[in-house]
Specification:
By secondary structure, the chain is mostly beta strands. It is built from two helices and ten strands. The chain has a single domain, classed as Jelly Rolls, CATH 2.60.120.10. Helices cover about 10% and strands about 40% of the residues. A hairpin with an 8-residue loop joins strand 2 and strand 3. Bound molecules: (2~{S})-4-acetamido-2-azanyl-butanoic acid. The site of (2~{S})-4-acetamido-2-azanyl-butanoic acid has 11 residues, from strand 2, strand 3 and strand 10.
Length: about 130
């Protein structure tokens, strides 16, 4: 069994805390935990807007706190994000995520991220085999 405390990770396991332009993330489960997915608690700054496209991953995201919106760039459809809403990028959907006030999200990635990823210019994370190479 793996048991981890978010507050302990933030205090003493800084390798699992990743940040980039206007977001930060605590990666509670990573590839080397052997679960087949990674699990992150992600904070998106108030007023920020992010264009992501996880070409190499499926991601599901559950909003725990904050409000914002997500636009599917393939269809132009926009959905409100608020506590209780989940979205799943089952088509590796390119999207714009907006935080009106700070969003706190629980995110799962399959395949799991390894721990070092930040977004590349195209909004994706590298595939695991690109990181190993
Ligand atoms: C909301 C969202 O797309 N989160 C992605 C995960 C986060 N940026 C991370 O841990 O890399």
């Amino acid at each position: 069994m793996i048991v981890r405390d978010f507050n302990e990770i933030v205090k003493s396991d800084r390798d699992r805390v990743v940040s980039d332009a206007q977001w930060s993330s605590v990666r509670m489960l990573l590839a080397d935990d052997g679960m087949g997915f990674s699990f992150h608690i992600t904070f998106l700054e108030a007023g920020s807007e992010h264009t992501f496209e996880y070409k190499n991953h499926f991601e599901s995201v559950y909003c725990m706190q904050g409000t914002g919106s997500i636009t599917d760039l393939a269809t132009g459809e926009t959905h409100a994000i608020k506590p209780g809403v989940m979205y799943a990028l089952d088509q590796h959907d390119r999207h714009v995520l907006r935080a009106e006030d700070e969003l706190i999200m629980a995110c799962c990635f399959n395949p799991p991220v390894t721990g070092t990823e930040v977004h590349r210019e195209d909004g994706s994370y590298a595939a695991p085999e690109e990181i190993e190479a």
